[in-house]
């Protein structure tokens, strides 16, 4: 899978256990694996976007459940993503405009909603 940010990611996280685990796992993924991974991610985003559009609070059980699915998705496909790492990812999603823009393609404001759901989920 072509990643325009691969070099930057390697510089930032290349020495971590999570990076090594992600590299080990993804090196064996076939096109079908990437399709399944992307589809799962899309389902989580769509669910969060629907909740957000319906006015459901990011701290609701439904949103927190989807934030937990997001965390488990990362664990299943890339590396062990505990609550602390997940919180850091949530913060990065709103601090880095590239992540925000990518997530907000599904729905404007989704990056912030996801971050808030992640924080609420990690606190419960």
TrEMBL record:
Positions of the UniProt region annotated as Disordered? 1-26
Q: Which Gene3D superfamilies match?
A: Antibiotic binding domain of TipA-like multidrug resistance regulators
Question: Which Pfam families does the entry mention?
Answer: TipAS
Q: Which domain of life is it from?
A: Bacteria
**InterPro entries associated with the record:** TipA-like_antibiotic-bd, TipAS_dom
Q: Which residues form the TipAS antibiotic-recognition domain?
A: 5-121
The identity of this protein, by name, is TipAS antibiotic-recognition domain-containing protein
* Species in which this protein is naturally found: Nonomuraea dietziae
């Amino acid at each position: 899978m072509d990643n325009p940010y691969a070099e930057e990611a390697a510089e930032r996280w290349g020495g971590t256990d999570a990076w090594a685990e992600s590299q080990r796992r993804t090196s064996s993924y076939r096109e079908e694996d990437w399709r399944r991974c992307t589809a799962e991610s899309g389902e989580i985003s769509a669910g969060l976007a629907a909740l957000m559009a319906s006015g459901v609070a990011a701290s609701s059980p439904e949103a927190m459940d989807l934030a937990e699915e997001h965390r488990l998705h990362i664990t299943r496909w890339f590396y062990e993503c505990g609550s602390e790492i997940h919180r850091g990812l949530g913060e990065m999603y709103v601090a880095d405009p590239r992540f925000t823009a990518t997530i907000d393609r599904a729905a404007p404001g989704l990056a912030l909603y996801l971050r808030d759901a992640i924080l609420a989920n990690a606190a419960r």
